[in-house]
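Hi F.,

I've been meaning to write this up properly since the lab meeting, where we talked about keeping a consistent format for the predictions we share between groups. The idea is simple: the sequence comes first, exactly as it goes in, then the structure tokens exactly as they come out, then a line or two of notes. No screenshots and no reformatting. I'm using this chain as the first example so we have something concrete to point to.
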Amino acid sequence: MKGKENTSKLKIIPLGGLEEIGMNITAFEYEDSIVVVDCGLAFPDDDMLGIDLVIPDITYLKQNIRKVKGFVITHGHEDHIGALPYVLREINVPIYATKLTIGLISHKLEEHNMLKSTKMKTIRFGQSINLGHFRIEFIKTNHSIQDAAALAIYSPAGTIVHTGDFKVDYTPVFGDAIDLQRFAEIGKKGVLALMCDSTNAERPGYTMSERTVGRTFDQIFSEHRNQRLIIATFASNVDRVQQIINSACKFGRKVVVEGRSMVNIISIAQELGYLNVPQNTLIDINQMRNYPDSQMVLVTTGSQGESMAALSRMAADIHKKVTIKPGDLIVFSSHPIPGNEKAVSNVINELYEKGAEVIFQDVHVSGHACQEDIKLIYSLVKPKYAIPVHGEYRHLIAQKNLALQLGIPKENIFVMKTGDVLELDQKSAKVTGKVETGEIMVDGLGVGDVGNIVLRDRQHLSEDGILIVVLTLEKYGRQLLAGPDIVSRGFVYVRESEDLMDEARLIVEDALNDCLEHHITDWGKLKSAIKDSLGSFVWKRTQRNPMILPIIMEA
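Output, unedited:
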């Protein structure tokens, strides 16, 4: 490229993950090269009835498939790797990530029978990979899962630093502290833009070290020596599990791990050497009855009140192996994710009803940087442009305000929306357009076959129920041979509303006869007439608006 000016601009296109927590995926494009950072899923909102998970719409990547060089993954959380099995079916390009992240992705792909067809490469911190016009360097950071990386993305238009999800932890439980020196070195050479985690941008101060939780655990273990301990935390927080194991060993307790995702991640972490478990500490859940309560600690999923997670099943008395009993001490080692507060509160109430004690204060530290840590990264990297990422809109704005305080001019800060195309180089940066983005819903084995119309129907059915009208017409004479019969589901209890149903039947009969007298025999018109007359009758009588489904048969 020497000797000629780089005229092309770098495009940054977030395809998900802005104005929401989850579904992180961003495309970086320079001429004929696209590199995709992260590929996460989101969990469904309350109004997405029956939906299992939500993945990003990758239409833009499919349209430019020849340019896509690979996926670069910052860390192994679901909101950064969860959509890979679905996206790789359509865009099969190599995946680059650190050791534990590759371990977790491999397990996920194995479940989908995609391990053999996917190319993966494990990258060490400090190592760089060349993908088309890009060179990408992995920088060590700290987070609530091991092996989290920030990325320095070198392009002919300039360097972008993407922090991934991070915190600054000088005393991590495992491995090294965040490589602040490398951030400073890259900052000295000049950074075009910083894309920084905004999740905790509203919180003042510094994020506490993960190690402080270990001290809290020691205190809890020493104060409750005669009780069985049940500790709920995020499955992916391997360091938290490590600290529970450390305290358990100190106080002579055995550890049982319960919950499918927890068992998976712990076994992968142990295999890869990220978890140090002394011999004879971990026992199978079936051996629990061989030990007194004072020697047991159970580590489980369900700290977010998810209805099918292990702790929720225990609280509701539907867990096959564990029954909560008076005297048990339950520790919630997590904060409720926004939106989950009600579910967590319900589980806590159920646990208290069973006579258990519950602790949920001071047993968690965040995996995300608070304001002072964010300021530190800005001061080291000294970016020309600031692009807040990872968070709801209010979090992005909070980081924008921090960047302003640090002297970054207002016109150099971009609070983007999903789908925006930001074009930038050393001279200028501006949002120049929008690409197609959206949410693809996964329900069971169906990917994208449930759209807004189906959801609207589900909403309608859940709120007002359904009335099915069944009748049989003579083939040529168009006489009514049988029916109309009306079946009600989720609308009224039929046995107590026989009068209403009889009247409804008469209304349908009148509407039908009216049509036949006027020689209307088109099924579409007959169905519309039935819907209209029955709908207005039901509304007048009940102020309800059930879905009405006429079924006409010929004989």
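Notes:
Confidence is low (pLDDT under 50) at residues 1-5.
The first helix runs from residue 59 to 63.

If this format works for you, I'll send the rest the same way.

G.
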